[in-house]
Specification:
Layout (H helix, E strand, L loop, with lengths): L2 H7 L13 H11 L11 E6 L2 H21 L4 H12 L8 E8 L11 H25 L3 E5 L7 H9 L5 E10 L14 H4 L4
Antiparallel strand pairs: 1-2, 2-4, 3-4
Helix pairs in contact: 1-5, 2-5, 3-4, 3-6
Bound molecules: flavin mononucleotide.
The site of flavin mononucleotide has 10 residues, from strand 3.
Length: 202
């Protein structure tokens, strides 16, 4: 597949078929992820794959909790929240055959000194985000869909994801990625602003 095609086909998928994703595919996704640039060569990322039905159910519940909190935080109406609950609990939204939680290990450092704590932490998060984008593009090539979940970073939920992953508080959760065969047709979403609008040449 041409890179352009993968870039243009990628879109967030929130409904999946139950078909499992093979271990080989999961390995290929993580293989693509770790080819991403990594600040100071830290490679301080860990990919925790949730694939047993029990583990997936728990991750799904945490996503559902986070999504409801998000809807309330942006003051969506009770009617909209009920619609979200229906989509999640009755229609299978956010249920996927594989969830991959991406963590960074905050202890792995290159720069010494407190003044570098923040930039190095942000660099690690950025590196992991680049790894996630690689994973998402590779998924397109393999006929798989993905969506990045950020609401699992809300207070209390992040800790529960870490505990499920068996990972300590020295790690920070960058995101949870759903992976699976998309259910139904997937149509990439339009961008609100075009290239000319977001570009400034000086
Ligand atoms: C950092 C980050 C966090 C996100 N968190 C969520 C989330 O918690 N739930 C969700 O449904 N989508 C989430 N998304 C997906 C965005 O909503 C989506 O990328 C955006 O609407 C554009 O749509 P597209 O990915 O189909 O182009 C997240 C995306 C990013 C990059």
């Amino acid at each position: 597949m041409e890179l352009d095609e993968a870039i243009n086909l990628r879109t967030s998928v929130r409904y999946y078929e139950e078909t499992p994703v093979s271990d080989e595919d999961v390995k290929a996704l993580i293989g693509a992820a770790i080819r991403a640039p990594t600040a100071s060569g830290l490679e301080n990322w860990t990919f925790v794959v949730f694939k047993s039905p029990e583990a997936r159910e728990k991750v799904y519940e945490l996503i559902a909790e986070g999504m409801e909190e998000y809807y309330r935080a942006v003051k969506l109406s009770e009617e909209k929240i009920q619609k979200l609950r229906k989509r999640m609990y009755e229609e299978g939204m956010y249920r996927a055959p594989v969830y991959i939680a991406v963590f960074i290990d905050k202890r792995v450092r290159f720069l010494k000194g407190l003044e570098f704590d923040e930039p190095e932490f942000i660099w690690s998060v950025e590196s992991a985000a680049m790894a996630i984008q690689n994973l998402m593009l590779k998924a397109v090539e393999l006929g798989l869909g993905t969506v990045y979940i950020g609401v699992t970073n809300f207070r209390g939920i992040e800790r529960k994801v870490r505990e499920l992953a068996g990972i300590d508080e020295n790690h920070y959760l960058v995101g949870v990625i759903l992976v699976g065969r998309p259910k139904g047709d997937v149509k990439p979403r339009r961008r609100k602003r075009g290239v000319d609008e977001v570009t400034r040449v000086i």
